[in-house]
Inverse folding.
């Protein structure tokens, strides 16, 4: 091919051929890409591209969002990834079919698992062994192209390699083009147009420069040639491309895109099946376990109404083929119970009669629907100090090739955006910190200028006039990703190799691995996730029950305490709730005397109503006014009465909003569930806007007043700020009642358990101890001759328990020193401070800590004498003389 044949002047703008962009990075190539996946998809579709490949560097973290954006568009989405090997070879791999996609995931996993968090490491041997036979390979040549690289690739992936020619007007394009034409002819490899896209529009150029400087950890003024020379790395108009590239290279992109048939819709997820005993099916085994549990739950016989409900749920589980999922959850809970780890399930699907019978939950509220085209969602809370045992059990049972934690996408917030950008503009750490410190987590982009003034800066100054628009871009909807982190406990478990379904990488914590998709991505693709969460109150309750049962010879357990005790509700209504789960905050304590809970249902509402969603949705005051009779309770229809009667006509729970959409606006159950998901994620997806007109028109058509419809929609927006589902509130209310009962009837044991479970809750140990004294508990000081590491109960003369403080509360006292002290004390009592110090081998720091806490008074008479005895143990340093010089 001659150079004159491809001269841009000879291409007509009107004759722009079709084009597919095969190399584009989203902002999930963190601190390189400057556009969201959906922005790239929307812009490519607007420009009339035939296809778009999202090829983030050694990552598929953004492809689900691109996939969802491309679903209703003409644009074809191709899944791929960019790699730079340790030898310097750079390439893009594009999945042709499901097999190619599996190989792509496997290669990304190998690279990420071989390096620290956020890094990857790949060799040619690993590329060759990954199984990319069903992937197209685009060679991305260096400024000085290497024939050896191309020959190696062409030999390993015959007929699948293309030379990506990226003409970006950086100087030397014609010479580079000629060199690649020559190399391609010599190696028998075709050339193809490509754009190395980093942004959907040129206007993101400044942001891309700033991101590069953040990644390089240097001011942008010092980045120099590390920044791109121009803004050409955007989705260019086809007419513009036609002036740059020969037609056959552009047409080749469309031809290659047509050869890629894979879609994320092809992913088929299978739950683990090895839990099923020989001779049984998942359905038969789940049925057997369910009815065994039902016999335990209802020892006098399972009521027919409950049998009918169980059969309905089992039939629905069978229809949706969810049996292995429920068996997986049951196995995890059974393991925790065998190990004595307190746990409780919650979640929209978990609160079912089947889960109740399996021992996963302690109650039931609602169940999955066949209309919900997604996996069940079960959350299980474990004692926070022992959850790691459960996580490692899952890893051991299924292997790291079949189980991993879900990811969480850490987004830029105003504070982090200002801090990073201030450094990019050359500010020092002190000034950057001052600028960021005035921001609050709830501030949005609109608050940034005023916050900047509060920090003593002038928003109109030249450098801030450039910085603030960039900050707005980082924090504006839907939020700019900064990096991936691990979900608090969402486990993805599958039957086959997880690394062929989604790439896996190392988390920051040792022995943790995460998939590259977050919970919303997993939901969008219908993949199983079970949340194994840590809850400090479960740790405290477990310890409290153990203390009480050992002391009283009782058999109290979670969910089995005397119900609906008026004395407990009297205490709660007085806001005497320091240490009580969920209702100990100042906001909750201010609400309690107004709401005056008198039943478990009231606790459910109390847990749910003091949340940002109900507060911002203006649900709190109407409910309180109606509860005390200051405002009439009115319902616009009998259908709405059935939905909202429990909460006096005010929608407080997500489930109520869904039902209102069904009965008042004519939504189908499936549409209502889509609304529920949008309520929880509208800030990320903007998903509530499409429902607004549908809701308002539907209610109007059914005769509901406009004011009612508008109020319901505003309340839905409030739920986007964090509203509680009924199922979660019901599970938490059980813990509220049990912890309140213990505080009311067993304050010594309850406080002892809280002290031994620190850190947790709102209150420091000193506040908990002061509250215990106020409730009549005798608190005994730390005593080196008596106290253990943990607080303990001691019997008083009247038989009631006294609280002995543990040595863990002594400031600056080392746990290792205490363990030596306890070991020495078991041999024989200490005779003096010197005897204790010598036998326990305590250093001066530990002795002074004990003396300051008064823990040595038993040996010295009082803390002041103890200080003198500790000081007397200080030995003079022996004199040392330098050897005489000869």
């Amino acid at each position: 091919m001659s150079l004159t044949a491809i001269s841009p002047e000879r291409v007509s703008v009107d004759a722009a051929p079709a084009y597919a962009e095969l190399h584009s990075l989203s902002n999930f190539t963190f601190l390189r890409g400057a556009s969201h996946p959906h922005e790239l998809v929307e812009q490519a579709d607007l420009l009339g591209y035939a296809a778009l490949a999202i090829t983030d560097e050694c990552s598929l973290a953004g492809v689900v969002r691109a996939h969802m954006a491309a679903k209703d568009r003409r644009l074809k989405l191709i899944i791929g990834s960019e790699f730079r090997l340790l030898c310097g070879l750079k390439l893009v791999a594009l999945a042709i079919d499901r097999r190619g996609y599996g190989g792509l995931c496997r290669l990304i996993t190998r690279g990420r698992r071989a390096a620290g968090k956020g890094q990857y490491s790949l060799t040619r041997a690993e590329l060759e062994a990954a199984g990319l036979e069903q992937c197209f390979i685009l060679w991305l040549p260096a400024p000085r192209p290497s024939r050896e690289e191309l020959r190696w690739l062409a030999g390993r992936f015959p007929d699948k390699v293309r030379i990506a020619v990226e003409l970006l007007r950086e100087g030397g394009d014609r010479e580079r083009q000629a060199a690649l034409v020559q190399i391609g002819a010599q190696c028998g490899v075709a050339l193809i147009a490509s754009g190395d896209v980093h942004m959907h529009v040129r206007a993101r150029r400044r942001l891309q420069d700033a991101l590069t400087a953040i990644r390089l950890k240097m001011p942008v003024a010092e980045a120099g040639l590390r920044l791109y020379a121009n803004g050409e790395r955007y989705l260019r108009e086809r007419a513009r491309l036609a002036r740059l590239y020969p037609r056959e290279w552009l047409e080749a992109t469309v031809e290659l895109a047509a050869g890629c048939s894979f879609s994320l819709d092809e992913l088929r997820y299978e739950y683990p099946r090895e839990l099923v005993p020989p001779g049984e099916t998942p359905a038969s085994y789940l049925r057997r376990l369910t009815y065994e549990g039902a016999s335990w739950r209802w020892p006098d016989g399972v009521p027919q109404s409950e049998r009918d409900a169980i059969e309905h749920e089992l039939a629905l589980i069978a229809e949706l083929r969810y049996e292995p999922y429920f068996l997986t959850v049951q196995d995890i809970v059974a393991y925790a119970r065998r190990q004595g780890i307190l746990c409780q399930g919650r979640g929209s699907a978990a609160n079912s009669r089947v889960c109740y019978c399996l021992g996963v939950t302690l109650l039931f509220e609602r169940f999955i629907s066949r209309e919900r085209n997604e996996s069940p969602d079960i959350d299980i809370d474990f004692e926070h100090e022992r959850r790691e045992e459960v996580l490692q059990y899952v890893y051991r049972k299924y292997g790291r090739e079949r189980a991993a934690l879900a990811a969480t996408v850490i987004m830029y917030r105003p504070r982090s955006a200002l801090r990073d950008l201030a450094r990019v503009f050359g500010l020092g750490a002190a000034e950057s910190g001052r600028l960021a410190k005035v921001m609050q987590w709830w501030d949005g982009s609109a608050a940034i200028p005023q916050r900047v003034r509060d920090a003593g800066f002038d928003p109109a100054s030249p450098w801030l006039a450039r910085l603030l628009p960039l900050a707005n871009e980082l924090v504006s909807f839907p939020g700019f990703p900064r990096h991936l982190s691990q979900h608090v406990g969402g486990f993805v478990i599958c039957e086959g190799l997880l690394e062929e379904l989604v790439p896996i990488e190392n988390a920051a914590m040792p022995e943790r691995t995460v998939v590259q998709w977050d919970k919303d991505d997993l939901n969008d693709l219908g993949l199983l996730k079970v949340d194994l969460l840590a809850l400090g109150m479960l740790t405290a309750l477990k310890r409290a029950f153990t203390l009480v049962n050992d002391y009283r010879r009782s058999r109290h357990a979670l969910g089995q305490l005397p119900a609906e005790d008026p004395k407990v509700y009297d205490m709660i209504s007085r806001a005497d709730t320091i240490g009580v789960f969920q209702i100990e905050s100042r906001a909750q304590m201010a609400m309690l005397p107004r709401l005056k809970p008198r039943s478990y249902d009231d606790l459910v509402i109390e847990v749910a109503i003091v949340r940002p969603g109900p507060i911002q949705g203006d649900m709190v005051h109407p409910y309180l006014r109606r509860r005390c009779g200051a405002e009439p309770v009115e319902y616009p229809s009998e259908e709405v009465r059935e939905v909202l009667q429990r909460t006096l006509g005010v929608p407080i729970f997500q489930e109520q909003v869904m039902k209102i959409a069904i009965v008042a606006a004519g939504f189908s159950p499936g549409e209502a569930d889509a609304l529920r998901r949008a309520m929880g994620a509208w800030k990320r997806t903007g998903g509530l806007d499409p429902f607004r007109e549908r809701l308002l028109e539907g209610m109007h058509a059914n005769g509901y007043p406009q004011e009612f419809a508008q109020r319901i929609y505003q309340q839905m927006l409030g739920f986007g700020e964090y509203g509680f589902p009924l199922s979660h509130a019901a599970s938490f209310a059980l813990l509220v009642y049990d912890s309140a009962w213990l505080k009311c009837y067993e304050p010594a044991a309850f406080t002892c358990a809280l002290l031994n479970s620190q850190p947790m809750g709102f209150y420091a140990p000193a506040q908990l101890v002061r509250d215990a004294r106020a409730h009549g508990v005798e608190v005994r000081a730390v005593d080196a001759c008596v106290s253990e590491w943990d607080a303990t109960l001691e019997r008083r003369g009247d038989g009631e328990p006294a609280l002995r403080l543990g040595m863990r509360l002594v400031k600056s006292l080392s746990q290792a020193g205490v363990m030596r002290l306890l070991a020495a004390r078991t041999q024989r009592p200490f005779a003096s401070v010197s005897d204790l110090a010598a036998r326990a081998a305590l250093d001066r720091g530990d002795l002074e800590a004990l003396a300051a806490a008064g823990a040595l008074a038993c040996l010295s008479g009082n803390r002041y004498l103890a200080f003198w005895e500790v000081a007397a143990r200080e030995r003079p340093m022996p004199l040392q003389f330098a050897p005489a010089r000869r």
The first helix runs from residue 37 to 46. DSSP finds 38 helices and 17 strands in the chain. Residues 560 and 738 are 9 Å apart (CA to CA). The radius of gyration is 33 Å.
